[in-house]
Amino acid sequence: MVKRKIWLVLVSGMKPARTFLLSLMKIGIFFKGCKNIDFINSTAIIYFVGQYIFSFNKFSMAQVVIKNIIFDFGGVFLNVDYAKTRQAFIDAGVVNFDDFYQQSHISPLFTQLEKGLIEPSVFYSSLRRQANTQLTDEQIETAWDAMLGTFRESSVKFLQQLQDKYKLYLLSNANAIHYEAFMQTYKDQFGKNDFESMFEGAYFSHLVHLQKPHADSYNYILEKHKLDASETLFVDDTFKNIEGAKAVGLQTLFLENGDYVEDKIGKFIDLKA
Description:
- This protein has helices at 15-26, 82-91, 108-114, 120-131, 137-145, 153-162, 176-190, 205-208, 215-224, 239-247, 261-264; strands at residues 4-10, 37-40, 43-50, 54-56, 68-71, 78-80, 148-151, 167-172, 201-204, 232-236, 251-254.
- Helix 10 (239-247) links the parallel strand 10 and strand 11 (251-254).
- It has three domains: 4-56, no CATH class; 68-79 and 148-267, HAD superfamily/HAD-like (Rossmann fold, 3-Layer(aba) Sandwich); 82-145, DNA polymerase, domain 1.
- The chain contains eleven helices and eleven strands.
- Helix 2 runs antiparallel to helix 5 and helix 3 (108-114) runs antiparallel to helix 4 (120-131).
- With 273 residues, the protein is α/β, with parallel strands linked by helices.
């Protein structure tokens, strides 16, 4: 029988737990076959023979191998500047735009748009009424699209490099107006229309009627593709979406403002050729 060296790490600050386990060992209740105890940098490392690895760490459990990656879209592959849309609406006379839309919070009207529950025409007329403005559909569309920038070519290229090693998915809070605009941007920028084909599944909120950070949006992909959440990394630039992903057991990578996914993901996956 092959014996495996199994280890249990107790952070030095967990003195009660360490004392308790040492006491159990002395009276023979703890795992038999314990070889030795080393104290390194005030951390007790207990070695014993068995079949499982238990790791009590201050930050996370023992790291698992990532097999699947779910990416957000805006702020990951597409440059997005929410301030430009905010300013465009304010310049157009909608001075209370913050009441309707922010990266961290959106009004029921924008939620309906993102979940595909209303058509753009209904959105335009409803916004005119709620914001007490006479802006035309075209003016609202222009202001709403102002946040959309160009694609991050290095990140798109990096995505292509991952295709042979990982199962890739996309989960984005989007809407019909933006979808049409950024897909045209991709075609203009790359000369083709194959962005979604780089994923095993690409899911936009207005098409699947599910919105992050609600658990059903993440579970939709996990269940549809039979993925193990602990083996799946979720990448997003909005913190509330990261928290929602953690709640369903996903591994997570939060991209802060200015972060590029190819620069930050290396601590989770193997980037060797």
